[in-house]
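Notes continue from the previous slide.

Worked example: a multi-chain complex. Inputs as given:
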Amino acid sequence: MATKSLKKLGSDLAQSNRQLEILSNGIFKNGELPTFKDKISKTNQFPLKAKKLEILQINVGYMCNQVCDHCHVDAGPDRKEIMTRDTMKQCLEVIKKSGAHTLDLTGGAPEMNPDFRWFVEEAAKVGIKDFIVRSNLTIIRANKKYHDLPEFFEKHKVHVISSMPHWTKGKTDKQRGDGVFDKSIKALQDLNAIGYGMPGNNLKLDLVYNPSGAFLPGDQTALEKDFKKALLEDFGIQFHNLFAITNLPIARFLDYLIASENYEDYMYSLVEAYNPAAVSNVMCTNTLSISWDGYLFDCDFNQMLELPVNSKSKHISEYNEELLEGRDIVISQHCYGCTAGAGSSCQGNII
Amino acid sequence: MQKTYYDPADLKKFGKISEWNEELGSKFFDYYNSVFKEGKLSEREKSLIALAVAHTIQCPYCIDAYTGDGLQRGITKEEMIEALHVAAAIRGGASLVHGVQMMNKVNKLDG
């Protein structure tokens, strides 16, 4: 189990250009597998174009209380990249004038940003339709100062989306660290206690499932059924929807794939599962990702690979939604992760 | 000529079997796909049965395929090994139950 980020360890793979090199060389360079560009060109879907903006996803920092094996952010307690209140103020201006119906806060553990509560209070005033906070659950139990987060979320009608790799302790702790399962269960019970995730309740609680190893997620509906049955029977826990998300071959998951000699087979599975129908709905076409320092990206994955938007509007200080609409999406081979099977996005399947 | 009888890469080529006989190949894969759809048994239960059978018939392609399928469905290794012990018990039992025939023969010839 990792205890430090790749960045802290000084790993080669902490460098985004090294990751991009790996994703473009080997099986993709020698023609064994088609590049993502070639693949989508065959169905006349290149270049991928951004449509009308629907989701603003803001990454408020890479600091996290956990060091999960497969984290695409390479997040951890040692990451110091944190959004400042000044940048948050600029984000608020963007949120106010944006046509997006969803605001999605992510990290790291977004709650660890010292200005997190202030930002949520201010952003909630804007009255955006769906206000999401991606919470890793354990943060709620990590320290006394976070114990009241469920009530805080409730007060601001925040939609909570949480990671849960499995309904068993063994598989969850293997991916996310010892003790994560028990803490997550307690946090889910706390959320349920005030109404989150309960049938018919407007306090939305969804779970994100991503596989614990070098395999793709199975059918989202079937997994949701199994999760619901097991969590209810074993712990009396309820939630609304399960989103099955494919692990993208970047950062720590890429490191894991290479170290376990699964990289090539995994890329084969992604390419084999390629579904052209998923391409037209990939999240980068209706989402914009803002980094802790205010730069704009097509998605959180491109943010981690430091692939900025292909637009003159590159930073929130020069935000221009009209200019951003219709931009060409920046792609590489990691994009196969979002087009495999029923497709994958931060909101789960896309077809 | 290839040096081993089994190549993991061949599993991906299974569908090509139809190229040499489209009609029978298609019928087989239609049947195959229908078998694994949810019926009175769930897809999950069918996947575990397939895994156990795969080990019984010792088909390396099937073992690869249904271990991966199980992981995708969230089947745990504890469930997988239980399914395998069912296969092993039946397989071992099948040998042992023939011991009755042995006992009958011994009793008859030398009883």
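Summary box: Residues 15-110 of chain B form a domain with the AhpD-like fold (CATH 1.20.1290.10). The interface with chain A takes residues 12, 42-44, 68-69, 71-74, 76, 78 of chain B (CB under 8 Å).
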